[in-house]
Records
---
Amino acid sequence: MFNTPSQLLVKSTQRFLNSDILKIGGDKLTEDGIIGFRTNTAINNAIINLRARFKANMYSWDNINIVGFRTNNIFTNAFTDWICYIGDDNFIAVPASTKAGNYYVKNPVTYGGIKGTAVMIPGYYKNLWVFRTNADWKTLWLGMPYMQQINDCSIYRDGNLDDNVNEDSAVQKGQFGINHHHAGFENFIYNWSAGCQIVQKNYYSDVLDCVPFVAGRMYSYWLVKI
């Protein structure tokens, strides 16, 4: 069971539902941060929709599911994607980036003899991350809890330095430090991600208060390109 979401999280969830990324229709919600009857109905419909998608693809439905939605193949250097956290009776969505920031697009690293920015390939990754936290956040990487990659994922190694994800780039599979963590408070990404799945810090803090992640537990991730 999730904790009560903040008004900020409810507003972003209403905005996500109004975008109709899930193609479930319904009247537009008032983005007021209040879970009234219509918002609650839309949330329930979103959960039903996603459960059906998991079942159709034979993916594992857990008590906490993390799904990213990549809205385009442009390196926008902004939070133009979405990450959703879904439980049996809970759903929140926050603006996110599933792509690297401008710094690493223009200054790609070399790995395995290939120079290019890491771009996670859409797909379902079972037990991709483990949740890292402890009582003293100051000792943690970036000073806040985060999801650390511990199992393989597939990436494009995009090195042509333009502002578009090149799906003809070399593909690599392995562990590249594609973590899930907070960014800054700014509206741009810049060097906060070299391929990680990131959320603006004010949203991420509220997610940590709402979603009951468990230290040391593994979490799967499904990245969807819409």
---
Amino acid sequence: LLVLDAAAVLRLQAQQPLGFMLAALCHDLGKALTTQEKDGRIISHGHEAAGVPLARQLLAAPGFADPALTAYVCNMVSLHMRPNALAAQGSSEKATNRLFRESICPADLVLLAAADRNGRITTQQATDDAAEVYLAERLEKFLGA
């Protein structure tokens, strides 16, 4: 819910505000299927892929039967971990461009990554700020290309 709160602050910047909020709601659904304890740590490897069918099922409910909206949300759910991972690794421009080409809406994906960062209880503000700058610069280059 912290990510949903952070997304609500950013939603008016999104190109697709409804889809963006639904993506924020659904982004970690896969954790219900993948969470486990390993070496005293809670991990959820692969939760983004596991969450796509769950998001698709949720969006198949009456009132949501919009294929474009479903595609957008499922794309965002499947990719939501990658922007922050690429930023943390200082990945190449080629790697971020590949991600942005895979994304239905790269600008909204960067916003979702920001909501995911901002929705965590953390003391890593400098790291979070660096990720935000990195992703904004890469997105600007991508969109300008």
